[in-house]
Design goal:
Layout: H1 28-44, E1 57-61, E2 72-79, E3 91-97, E4 103-104, E5 113-118, E6 122-123, E7 125-130, E8 138-144, E9 148-154, E10 164-169, E11 172-178, E12 184-187, E13 198-201, E14 208-210, E15 222-225
Parallel strand pairs: 1-8, 9-15
Antiparallel strand pairs: 1-4, 2-3, 2-5, 5-7, 6-8, 9-12, 10-11, 10-13, 13-14
Length: 227
Amino acid sequence: MTTPVRGWLVAWCVLSACVTTRDSVGGGDARLDEDKAKEDAVKVAGRACGPDAPGDVVLLDARTGGPVTCLAVTVTREPMSCPVGTECPSEVLFKGLTSPRGQLKLIAPVERARLTAVADGFDPSSLANATSAKDRVLELELEPAEGFWLKVLDGEGNYLQDVTVTFRQGEEIVAQLRTNTLANVFFTQRQPFAGDPVVITAPGYQPVTITGAAELGEDGHTLTLVK
């Protein structure tokens, strides 16, 4: 469980409900059939979801760890020799909607290339050294456009999943978060580490003290814990 303190933490819950109604006096079935026909027409036009077929890339939400389904996205390829953050020649390999499983099919295989995904609600997000393979689906994490996320690794670079991480300033606990399947934790604030130094602890690992996000790996989003 996560415990919000001082507005740093948000609990992400997705609640969905589907209700089908039917007219009490005739016409209900016809109306349902008509609605279904409209939905099918939209799907055929490609405006609801991409094809529900095996893809070679799956887009994952860094906040939840789950697939990003039925999302309009553009995926480009550029050489790894191109420095990050600079404008380099690129090729569009996909432009459309992800499937209900969050997957998409590139128009060409890739080998040691950088894939970059651009979609509303997310910052441009990249996967380095991407190489196509028949027996696996590439995973590309989409970074949220709002808030701040942090990936938690061990000393060997392995994901620390389902680990409770506590953030303290002085004697006060300012946030306590549990990592998701991508080893990420998420803050609602864009710059959560302001003010006094923050001591970060997790069971079985040595404490880490930081004064800002600049100390969190080369990308500003990576926390490494050692035993």
